[in-house]
CDP-archaeol synthase
Amino acid sequence: MLVLLAIANGAPILGKKIFGASFNYPLDGGAKFRDGRPLFGPSKTIRGVVLSLIATALAASALGYEWIDGALISALSMLGDLTSSFVKRRLGLPPSSMAPGLDQIPESLFPLLALKARLGLTAWDIAGVVLAFVVLELLLSRLLFGLHLRDRPY
């Protein structure tokens, strides 16, 4: 499960490095919320969501899960990521700014809670995977920055 969450959240980052500005269409279309701030911001793209869906569905199949489970994990993880971006914009934080916990918990918790029964997860499983994801995400972000795959070390 942790691997699928990492793939779901890593595919958009890798896609940005591979495709650069190509296919870089913001999910919010540049729309602003009633507070005048962007809905999500320019770093949340259609390309990122599509790549996440494809990569996670393929990885799920390769790991013995159903492809639909991978697609659901991806979609719900992206929903968690969009939720945290929306909250960060409301708090006045700029796109791609660091917010420990807020950046990791929704994108790992949403899919696990939604698929709890389908995948036979316990509350302890969910807590363990979320905690592991937070730690892994923080460590991998620094590594990916060092490898020039991320623009920031977080």
About this structure: The first helix runs from residue 2 to 19. The radius of gyration is 15 Å. The chain has one domain: 2-146. Helices lie at 2-19, 46-62, 67-90, 105-114, 116-119, 123-146.
